[in-house]
Each structure stands twice: as structure tokens, then as C-alpha cells.
Amino acid sequence: MRQVPNVHDAEPIPAAAKQAIEELLQSGDLFRYNSEEAPVSLLEREFADLLGAKYALAVSSCSAALFLSLKALDLPRDAKVLIPGFTFAAVPSSIVHADCIPVLCEVGPNYRIDLADFEAKLDDVQAVIISHMRGHTSDMDAIMSLCEARNIPVVEDAAHSLGTTWNGRNIGTIGRVGCFSFQSYKMINAGEGGILITDDADLVARAVIMSGAYEHNWKKHKGPIGENSSDLEEAFARWQNQLPLYNLRMNNLSAVVIRPQIPELARRVRDGLVNHDYVAARLNGSAYLDVPPPLAPEQRAPDSIQFNLVDMDEAETRAFAQVAAEQGVKVQVFGLSTDNARAFWNWQFLPEKQELPKTRDMLMRACDVRLPVRLSRDELDVIADILLEAAEIVKGEQRAYGT
Question: pLDDT higher for 16 or 393?
């Protein structure tokens, strides 16, 4: 009997982190503002340098980073923020928390923004969040051109896209601000945690203060080494005591877990892409499974695979997921759940109901399977075999399944 790999464990924490964790626990110094050289401060500098940004702010989650980004943009109450209809519930939630109104646009069968619908809705919004959902990058050249022509700020939700590039440029550095996640199923695993990056001194100063840099703790935030920090200092002085505190800070223990993983990122990105493309090639050999290709300027950093079911109705789609699960591979069909947080119709907290027929149709046949970068070729083959066999059982010669 074939051994199905465990795809649910997160990326392991490097051994290099263990000593740093032990030293930190012995000191009890978990609060990020006890020194200017605290682990969180060091992480911010290292992460900004890694991505090529001037400033970084580490916080409690990517959701917190998105929320702070919107608040730091100083949008008016009830400002409309355009987002793709295919994203995680935390994204529209961050907009609601920021006293703004989510506006959804269509997403195509390749999981990327429908640019015609995006442009049609753009003149009625005050900001945009681009979710690179599951690491799939929409046409950032077109998006930025449309938004810049209207002076609309763009926030990149890059929770799934650490290590992805667009025309050689790091995702997260194209918009006004980029937000990343350190949740366990991301390329860098801290269980929870997030970080935002930007080149805008005024924006990061506002975000820092609102994140919980009370009194003069903002003085511990510095700009790039060797650069004049007067812009940042002036921004902090402008906003000190002017903004509410939301206390969304990252603690030092999270930072010492994250920092040793940064040198692992390039290898994880490389291995994840190789794994993804190998399985994608196998699945695309089936008449019933379709893995959409990347856009030409996009170099992805995947740790999961998404594919569409071809010519399957809802009953067959459910049967496919059931057969795969019985063989040990969990397939999430985004639209086939009453509580899936990635199906827009389940976001019942939205101020008003919005319908996206193209996105709904895609989500009813779009599948998601974890592919941790640590998997071997043999383990990838087991997963691919099960998915291919499940499709054949439901649609191929064994059509009698379930009848």
C-alpha cells in the first residue's frame, strides 16, 4: 500500500533558532521596545533589506498589517476599497475594521483579476488591495497604470507571495505598501505574525505609532543604515500623540523564530517552484484537470497547487474530492463549503451583498492541495497519482462510481 505524505505539517524551524529561543527565554525579554537592537527591530531591518524596501514594521499578523496600511493611508470613513473576489476573509475584514467599505471585482479562471471589471469599478474607489491569492500574481503593470492615472493607492496583500517576482521585482514592493504573513502555512513559519514594507516615511510612521509605539518608542524605529533619517524623524514628530493605538506589535519570541528562516527562503522558493511545476505537468496530462499557467512576467514561489476541474458538475466535483480524500489527499474545493473563508458569499459581515458570477463559477471548480517544499519526488508522485486516479474514477471509464 502506498504511503501518502503528510502535507499538513508546516516548514520546520531551523536548528539555528533553538539557541536564540533559549537565550531569549532565559532573559525573559520578550517585549520589542526594551532595546533598539531587539530581535523584532533586527528582523525589520533584515526583511526590508531582503525585499529592497526602506522600511518594515513587524506586527501580529498579515491581517494587522493590512488594517494598519489602510489606517496609515488616512482614508476617510466609508472610503471604498477595491479587492478581488477571490481572497481570504481577513482582507475584507481588515477593510471593515478600518471603517471602510469593501468593493469586490471579478476574478477569472486563472485566479487573477478580471481587468475589465477592475477598471470599470476603479473610478468609484479610494484605495485598492491586490491579493496575490495563493501566490497568483495579477497583471501588476496594468493595475499600477490604471491606479496611478487616478492617484489611487495600492496595497499588496502578499501573504502567499514571499519570494515571488514580477518582471524581476519583488512582489510587495510594487504598490505603496506590501503586507506579508508568517502564519504556519507560509514560506516562513512563526505560527502567527506579519510584516509590512514601504518606502513611504509618513505612511510607516503612522503605522508604527498606531501599531503600539506609545510615548517615544517610535524612536527605536530607524530608516536604512547609512541613509539620512530626517524624513522618518520628522514624520514621527508630526504624528506623535495624534493617532490611536491598536497594540498590534510582534513580540521578540516570534522574531527569533523567523530570523533564522530568512536564509532558508531562497531554497524554499526554488524547491517549491520545482515541486509545483512537476505536479502541474502531471495534472495537465489529464483531460479533466487544468493548472492555469503563470503570466509571463511572473516567477512564482508556491507551496501549494491550484487546479480547475474540467467538465465536472457539482455532484462529480464532490465525488472527486471524496475519492481523493479516501485515498489520503485532501482537496479543498473553494466554493463547496458553507464556511470556506475564501468564498465571497460566505462573508456575511459585508455591509451589502455583492454578486460576482464569473468568480463564483471559478470557485465552484477550483481546487487547492498543499505541496510543502520538503516533499520528495516520490511523495509528489503519490499525490499526483491519487488526483489523476480520482478524476478518472469520476469521469473516465469507471463512470459508474456513485450511481
Answer: 393
